[in-house]
Amino acid sequence: MSADIENDAWITGFDGIGQLISLHPLFIEEFHENYYKGEALGSQFFTTAYYKLFCDVDGALRKRNHFKDCNADYCKLLDDETKKLVEELIQNDQKNYERYVSLKPKKALLKKTELWLHLEKPLINEVIKGLDSFVVKKPDSFCYMDIIDHMKGDAKKFVLSPYSFSDRYEKTNFLVTLFNSGIKTRENRQIFNRIAYFYRG
Q1: Are the C-beta atoms of residues 198 and 115 closer than 8 Å to each other?
Q2: How far apart are CA 99 and CA 109, in angstroms?
Q3: Residues ≥6 apart with Cβ < 8 Å to 189
Q4: Under 8 Å between Cβ of 43 and 27
């Protein structure tokens, strides 16, 4: 999908036909290094399309769960045949269309980034205290490198798992989850607003 497509444009997405709410480009950061070797930091690698479903590709009207997101590569503007289908659906059921137009997202689109780490046991309490302190200082606007800068020397002892998803559970013991409400970025970095962690001892 072209980045020039404006919000509210009618599109065909992964789950059906609807209107684009927003596009959210994502960029390669330090925690991607095991997955995008050779790619430059800051390079765009993915765009999330957030859209409101009106019907499926066969014209069956959507009754619930209208708000969806997917890889923008799966989205495209309507062709003439699909435009005609949408126009007929609107004309034949104006009440349903008015209800569709009135629908608004109840919460922002959420992006979660999981950092799987292996920590030596003596470091666990120190790392948890550091993370708690960091969240108090920057409760709603931080990027990945802010965390690393805050942890300083301790961060260098983190070992980001190079393993596949299938065996991470066996080979890591500490999970840090970063939450990005609204999939916001600044200077080609995700801006997170919440953090959670889990240690499996």
Answers
A1: no
A2: 21
A3: 27, 29, 143, 144, 145
A4: yes
Residue 41 has φ and ψ, to the nearest 5°, of: -55, 140
Compute CA 162 distance to the chain's CA centroid, rounded to the nearest angstrom: 21
For residue range 26-85, list pLDDT tens digits in order. Answer: 999 887 766 777 788 899 999 999 999 999 999 999 999 999 999 999 999 999 999 999
pTM above 0.70, yes or no: yes
Q: Give the other-Cβ count within 10 Å of 65's Cβ.
A: 8
CB within 8 Å of 190: residues ≥ 6 apart: 26, 27, 29, 111, 113, 143, 144, 178, 180, 183, 184
Distance CA 50, CA 111 (A): 12
Pairing of strands 67-71, 76-77: unpaired
Q: Tokens 């666990």: give the residue.
A: 124
Contact 51, 18 (CB under 8 A): yes
Q: Could you tell me how far CA 119 lies from the centroid of its own chain?
A: 26
H/E run at residue 151 = helix 144-151
- How confident is the prediction for the chain on average, in pLDDT? 85
Asked if residue 84 lies in contact with residue 129, where contact means CB atoms within 8 angstroms, the answer is no
Answer whether 48's CB lies under 8 Å from 71's CB: yes
SS3 at position 169:
helix
**Cβ–Cβ under 8 Å, residues 10 and 77:** yes
